Queue: 2 jobs
Job 1
Amino acid sequence: MKRTVFRFARGARRFATAAKQDAKVESAADAASAAKKAKYRRWGKSAAFWGLGALVAWDINLVLADDKKPAGGKADGYPKWTDKHKSLLRKYLTPEVYEKLKDKKTKYGFTLQQVIASGVANPDSNIGVYAGDEDSYTVFGDLFDPIIKEYHDGFGKDGKHKTDFKTALKAPEKDEKSEFIVSTRIRVGRNLAGYPLGAGVNHKELMEIEKKIVEGLNGLEGDLAGKYYPLKGMSKEDATQLTKDHFLFKEGDRFLEAAGLNRAWPDGRGIYHNKDKTFLVWVNEEDQLRIISMQNGGDVNQVFQRLGRAVDQLQKKIKFSYNDHLGYISSCPTNLGTAMRASVHVKLPHLSKDKKTFQALADKHHLQIRGIHGEHTEDDSGVYDVSNSRRLGFTEAELVQGMYNGIQEMIAKEKELKAKAKH
Ligand code: ADP
Ligand code: ARG
């Protein structure tokens, strides 16, 4: 295609030049011939115009197709940290580690500058790094290994990951009337084997990945059957409503932006969901797939079981990137392993006023507290998003069980504080 466009443009240019020269030489010739030449000239100009247009289009295509340049701009030396930079990136990217890694590249050409771009550009990052492919985790291991170890509770270089969706949970409390638990959601991230991750893909790969995922999704059956809605062409109102209702990812996340994960937006992005929106899949956001099971109330068993079935069916159709050490490969090291975040939106108006106790309970059960409008959000509604923080080195069943146990203890404390407040 590109070669054809190129040939066409070159031909048009030659044709236009020839027509111009001819017209000069024959300026004294008879009027009929001059008119003929003028006609050729017009054709030549028009052909040159369209040829040029095609070339510009080809160029744009090239920019999109070959956009593997560092997301964070040029390689400009060891980062200039400010007082606000408090990330694990800052902690572990010592000048020595920087020197050792600065000229390395993965087999897809991902660089250290790309790995650290988001954490340098966003001083409030907690972690600050993203991988561009599976290889990033080994090539830049001197940086990733200590970050992984600290985030995933001591998971070392020799650690082995294990996966288990089958073990039954001990989770009898369902809170179906949502006295405390508004909703339960469990998601896992997945990326395709044989491709770079989102920050490392080019436009062609991005579109191929979307196509493969949608083909896989279209084969799902029963309560998992649904429809794919590409972001491109979706009305602003629909997208905003879906995001507000906690179904769709938000647009313009600055951490992803700086990591190069929002390139060519909204191309290749979209959301699949079943009729009831209890099973959803985000396509080409931070990870190539975010497979989500969610519903109102606190029946964590049902949510977990639905997710397990979905993952099982999907991995028969799509090969996911996985290794025995890091489990499922993800863009951000916090998501490695299970790539699972099991969360509840839970009403804890009394406990959340006692921030120290709330945080201590979260720490005890390795849980993370977020606002209910997604990561990096906060409000004072008294409803919180509480989820497992570790994802690597523990099975899916273990992590969901841990989240359930922690939430039950938080709810018990909430009841106690509420009763005290009445006296
Ligand atoms: P991720 O789950 O991928 O880590 P976010 O924290 O940004 O990403 O959450 C994505 C969306 O999922 C947000 O709209 C958030 O409100 C919603 N969400 C998360 N947990 C729950 C839950 N338990 N119930 C309902 N919505 C949830
Ligand atoms: N890069 C962000 C930070 O360092 C987010 C890290 C974890 N969250 C995520 N969605 N990967 O704070």
Job 2
Amino acid sequence: MEKIIDEKTQGNTLTLEPKTGNYRKLYIESYGCAMNFSDSEIVASILADQGYNTTNLLEDADLVLVNTCSIRDKAEQTVRKRLEKYNAVKRINPKMKVGVLGCMAERLKEKFLEEEKIVDLVVGPDAYKDIPNLLKEVEEGRDAVNVILSKEETYGDVQPVRLGGNGITAFVSITRGCDNMCTFCVVPFTRGRERSRDPQSILREIADLSERGYKEITLLGQNVDSYLWYGGGLKKDFKNASEMQRATATDFAKLLDMAASAFPKMRIRFSTSNPQDMHEEVLHVMAKHENICNHIHLPVQSGSTRILKEMNRQHTREEYIKLVDRIWEIIPGCSISQDMIVGFPTETEEDHKETLSLMEYVKYDFGYMYKYSERPGTMAARKMEDDVPEETKARRLTEIVDLQQKHSAYRTAEFLGKTVTVLIEKESKKNENEWSGRTEHNNVAVFPKENYKPGDFVKVKVTNCTTATLIGVAIGFSQSN
Ligand code: SAH
Ligand code: F3S
């Protein structure tokens, strides 16, 4: 799942094999980015040690946790609606406790308890280890809040429980927080300053996944290319690091190289790359290792240099194009996906046309496109008027979505007649006689099951396709991944 905001998984409840001896029931629901889903696995792990097994029946739960997203207003409204639903259930089961985790918890803090009477517990993204203490407070009848952001916390020492997964693909978080301060974005406020996780703990987690039969990992961070380990501490404090710390520091290229070399059978993806931090070194590491997928999620947000500047993205349109060209020089055929925002304050028809023309140049394989949503507290909200009318935003969004559809279809069709390696993840939703998996370029592929099974790397000859899916037949096991 490379998608950052996967609408299909929004609100998924997460369950795992019950731990014997545990008798309390946790219902945990996640919204937003992959990091939130990954964090919920950390929370479930912390609570498994407190006697909680997960359930996917809300009515059965002793504790309901919702891991929330603040990225757009709509994301917050979705959570508010879910709280109404929990409220209805709480009327039947008054002992049920409700906690709000994640970005909305961090953004609204104590205010949540005033605004939503149903909430007993508010926990920000860096305070999950405090949940056992907070639950004690709640049991004693007090409301409990911990929204302290940390300089150090990476949860590197918590072994996540893999919830609701397929046993084949997993997320491994490598950085937390973000320092980029894009003017539209709430993440630096809700997830705090950027810090990286100890590479040894990352490699241990991958080793554990590998032993348990996992075949693909996605290294996760708001901005993975900015990864920097120099013994702990904030990225922004690296300037004060000692000479020794500098000499032995691990950056993203090095981490990727270490992971790919140590686990040649494991397929490796990463997300997200901010163009301003993506260095050529990473591209060379990708080219060097067969097990690193040739796909880069490279959000650009706008094709207009003027708007990019207003957004505080640290590159121009031309620099972005240069980077894309370099990607294709070093990794021929590398797939590239985007995030795009339409209707950022002051965006003119000219700016919008620049976005369309940039898309035309890159012909992205995939894309996630949004209307600008003003977020309280961000620089854009403080300094700029949300002045693009709703109808204009809607129309521009339709235009870029339509164009992206065309490009996705074009990119998918490029694989017709070719043979691709597919990692089987699950049964196809549309046909129980077919497997569904993904190629290294992140295309979904379906093909008749024959004697293959989930977790197999299979060579598939592509005979047909839709806009987003490759359709083919298996022609044997693949030696590569
Ligand atoms: N670096 C992050 C970005 C997180 S937000 C990552 O790992 O993906 C994901 C996407 O949401 C952004 O790339 C942007 O396109 C979109 N987004 C962020 N803030 C937004 C806002 N205020 N309005 C609309 N879309 C927004
Ligand atoms: Fe947000 Fe920009 Fe960071 S989009 S997560 S501030 S890279």
